[in-house]
Amino acid sequence: MKRHIFVLAISVAAFILGCEEDTLIDPATQPGTGLLDKVAPVPVVQPTIILIDMILPDPRPGFNNIDAVSGNVSYLLTTASSVSSNLGVTKRLDLSLKILVTPFWGGGPVGKVSLTSSDMVTLPSNGASTLQKEYPVSGDAGLVLNMDFKVTGSSVTVSRMWLSTTSSTIHQTEALAKAACQGFIAMDEEIPFAVIELNPLINQSIYVAGTVGYQMGQPPVLVRDQVTVSLSLNADLRPVNGTDPIWSFSAESEDVVALSNSGPTLLLKKYGGRSQLSFVTLYVQYEVSKCKVTVESMWAVSRPIPSPVPVTP
């Protein structure tokens, strides 16, 4: 009997030990203690996108046009070296461009820029550097998109953009862009002339002779459908039957003009002058379209200079 009880006790003890071994937890699967919990997740860096939407002069001879440039530039800016040298901190800039270049007024080839690039940029002590890039426009032979990127420690912006016909220096490209949209207007005609006396109003005509030089370019803030129009006027007003100028005008101006697909945009300018007896204002209304400026109409108005009021002692 004692032997049976002993054997039974041995069997129960073995059964209990076996159950405990089966319920042990694998350290690799226990939360907070496994090997997988010691591996940090790799952060996913998303590129930053810069939207492009503007118009630029087309510098090619014979085109006399402007192009619409639209799309986006995505970039990743990472630190290439965490050790600062005497030259500054080196950053790696990865760029991806997806841009369309199309004639603003239609009727021409559609160009594309779909490229990626990687550059090392060293930031000086002031924390900013400029990276100049040139991208050939596929589908529109001979056209190059030039871009200046301003790079800081944490951001990238497009500080300047222009089109050229070949890869060139900044000064050569600027000369091509300026030559694309400039010209002269000759003024040599008889125009209405209103002389405002105290009573009555005298309507007559007067002769205007001179030139207006114009140049079109990019506005300070790049906005699509807007251009800067610089004007330089030199003109004389003469009697219809005379030769000596009564008034001479010389003035320069710069205006930002919004272009329209439906027709030319009107730009009214006033030029003032005076003689010993009267003030005169020359009104010139310009038509701005594509890369061209013309004079739509002109007229002049003369007003007498008020006599000084005598001071009563």
Observed structural traits:
four-stranded antiparallel sheet; 55% strand; 313 residues; mainly beta; 14 strands; elongated; 2 domains; seven-stranded mixed sheet
Brief summary:
This protein has 313 residues and is mostly beta strands. The chain has 2 domains: 133 residues; 123 residues.
Please tell me about this protein's structure.
By secondary structure, this protein is mostly beta strands. The chain has two domains: 133 residues; 123 residues. The chain is 10% helix and 55% strand. The chain has two helices and 14 strands, in the order H-E-E-E-E-E-E-E-H-E-E-E-E-E-E-E. It has a seven-stranded mixed β-sheet with strand order 11-10-9-8-14-13-12. The protein has a four-stranded antiparallel β-sheet with strand order 1-2-3-4. Strand 5 and strand 6 form a beta hairpin. The termini are far apart.
